Amino acid sequence: MIKVLLADDEAMIRAGVRAILATDPGIEVVAEAADGREAVELTRAHRPHVALLDIRMPRLDGIAATAEIRRVAPDTGVVILTTFGEDDYIARAIGGGAGGFLLKSGDPRELVAGVHAVAGGGAYLSPPVAYRVIIELGGGRMTRGADARSRITRLTPREREVLALLGAGLSNAQIGARLHLVEGTVKAYVSEILARLEVRNRVQAAIVSYEAGLVRES
All domains of the chain, ordered by start, with CATH? Predict the structure, then answer.
């Protein structure tokens, strides 16, 4: 069962999101918060697999709450669910440690898929958000590609294999099945990869993998 914390300052939005998640018997909303500070406190108390956060909330916004949650509960994945898809929000959310970024205007099935992906150690972006990230990657790609190829030289051959599959969007369980490793070992590899690449989360690591050409190699 995937335990989810839901944080949004609008009760009606929380009710709607809860109803969508309730369509999946494998997901349980264990706590709800009306602001970012409460979201951090409830995450500390309940240790959910996924914290689903709005960006604009009182006391502590979703971006700041993401960073706090990643600090106090590093095993909890964060998914941003928002009306706002501006590039600055996307960059700040990913930079702060969010593993997912979903738009409230999107298909409800994306919400369920995003929760499953992040709970499984993967990442998930709404299609419009993913498109904008890819467009951003296109600018200055040659320079960033050279930097990414330099950075992956810090990795062992096995870590490069894991990074390639991570960049292709596979969860820890899927990577383990592909490489015949237990999920705990994959998680340890991913933690080491993030440290060696000096990135904060899987999304940033996936970008390095893409820019270095590892995704095409996988």
Answer: 2-134 (3.40.50.2300), 140-217 (1.10.10.10)
